[in-house]
Amino acid sequence: MAVIMDGKATSAKLRKEFLEKVSLLKEKGVTPGLAVIIVGEDPASQTYVKNKEKACVECGYYSEKYALPEETSEAELLALIEKLNGRDEINGILVQLPLPKHICEDHVIRAIHPLKDVDAFHPENVGHIMTGDFAFVPCTPAGVMELLKEYDIDPTGKRAVIIGRSNIVGKPAAMLLLHENATVTVCHSRTKDLAAICREADILVAAIGKLEFVTRDMVKPGAVVIDVGINRNAEGKLRGDVNFDDVVDLASYITPVPGGVGPMTITMLMQNTLRAACIQNNITL
């Protein structure tokens, strides 16, 4: 039976560490500040933003929320970002995705100053992730790596397979595992013999967005299975991209949904915001 990788416990431990570091920062006159912008009324986005606000309170950060109506123009959103870029007390700027269709996500991502880009989506930060000299990492892949670290799982020399090639999870997760000396394969909708490739994985990361897509015939006995997916089943319950019940007795470690990678994502946002505050104020903790 696999060890269940507890994202809630790991997240709580890290947030306690952040709170201690924030106390040191405050002694130097700096409080990490995060601005979160949400456009429209998407229920899932509303929930995420609320959780981010709670995390800021828990970690002792300063936060501002901008809830803009659906009809907000791209120009208005870009003007707000430009204003926040110029404010010293705002160290991180996060624009909740997805945006309404009339707003270009790429224009918005590029408008955020790279040193305040706590989502790490700006092309400059993406380039740093490629070369390995990064300050910020997209929050979900960062959470995956922290969980591996927490459970003493060293990727060195291991075969890692990622299902999914998104800019938010799949690609950066591949680079982070590569930087930790894993041999990485990225699979996607055009991959042939997907199950056979997945069975070769010592570390299998599912980030495809399909309910319980990964079944036991795709998992090597003893593999570490990381489930990034968040889906709802017919009963409306949260489930991942991995059929947990089918795989749990085959894997050596596995993340549950909910309670695995999910809590880590917001915690890594807190980590990026803390780093941003330190960098912008030339402080080393």
Secondary structure elements and pairings:
Elements: E1 3-4, H1 7-27, E2 33-39, H2 43-59, E3 62-68, H3 74-85, E4 92-95, H4 105-111, H5 123-131, H6 139-150, E5 159-163, H7 170-179, E6 183-187, H8 194-198, E7 203-206, E8 224-227, E9 231-232, E10 238-239, H9 244-247, E11 253-254, H10 261-280
Parallel strand pairs: 1-11, 2-3, 2-4, 5-6, 5-7, 7-8, 8-11
Antiparallel strand pairs: 9-10
Helix pairs in contact: 1-10, 2-10, 6-7, 6-10
Q: What would you note in describing this structure?
A:
- The protein is of the alpha/beta class and 285 residues long.
- 41% of the residues lie in helices and 15% in strands.
- It has ten helices and eleven strands.
- It has helices at residues 7-27, 43-59, 74-85, 105-111, 123-131, 139-150, 170-179, 194-198, 244-247, 261-280; strands spanning 3-4, 33-39, 62-68, 92-95, 159-163, 183-187, 203-206, 224-227, 231-232, 238-239, 253-254.
- A six-stranded parallel β-sheet has the order 1-11-8-7-5-6.
- A hairpin with a 5-residue loop joins strand 9 (231-232) and strand 10 (238-239).
- Helix 2 (43-59) crosses helix 10 (261-280) and helix 6 packs across helix 10.
- It is globular, with a radius of gyration of 19 Å.
- The model has no long low-confidence stretch (mean pLDDT 96).
